[in-house]
Amino acid sequence: MTSLHRPIACLTLAFSVFSAAVSSAQDLKSVAAAIDGYRFEFACKDPMPENPKPGADGISARMTDDPATNDKFTDVRTFGGEPGKRYKVTLRVRGVVEPMMYKVGQSVGEYFYIGGVPNNATYNIYQLSISSPATHVFFNRQDKVGHRIFTIDYTATVEIEGGATLTFHGDGQNGHMITNFAKLVVPEIPPAPQPFNGQFIQLNVTDVVEVK
What we know:
- The structure is a single chain.
- By secondary structure, the protein is mostly beta strands.
- The chain has one helix spanning 5-30, and strands at 39-43, 57-59, 72-78, 86-97, 102-103, 106-108, 112-114, 117-118, 125-130, 135-138, 150-161, 165-171, 176-178, 198-211.
- It has one domain.
- A six-stranded antiparallel β-sheet has the order 3-12-9-10-7-6, with no helix packed on it.
- Strand 6 (106-108) and strand 7 form a beta hairpin.
């Protein structure tokens, strides 16, 4: 091999290694497809007024006459990957929410809460439960509740075993919610650039790493 060919061969090998690494990362990310893009939504029943009243609450579009279904929903999905293997999944959490308090768990950052139970009977709950390793998390933790609405945009990491059951649960608790009276918008998240008429959280997977 001539000296001219050696650099070309090295570059080809380096590109192949890089391509394999990118492909491996994409394959790992695909195991979390059941979470990627999932969206909790609490829409308002009535149209958004042109000039909403600050601090206003409104009727949830999920309100029913049946206490078993009133203002709540549950979606169950299966995580990918191989049974017996554990994956560290990084989520980007974005949305427009009202505050909610939780207790006897662990606060991580300003909004993320691991374990514990709800600590108020009227404000909206956003929860993800993982069957293995058994845990559950909440996404809109605050130290106190009130007629406030705010945007969230943060990352959080959870560990999930291959084939685990994922349960996404939302509970408005009382058929009412704090409306998006400030017409807040989360950039790049539909219905941006228009405000969502209600509250939502969208989960997107940014990284997946196998736990060795």
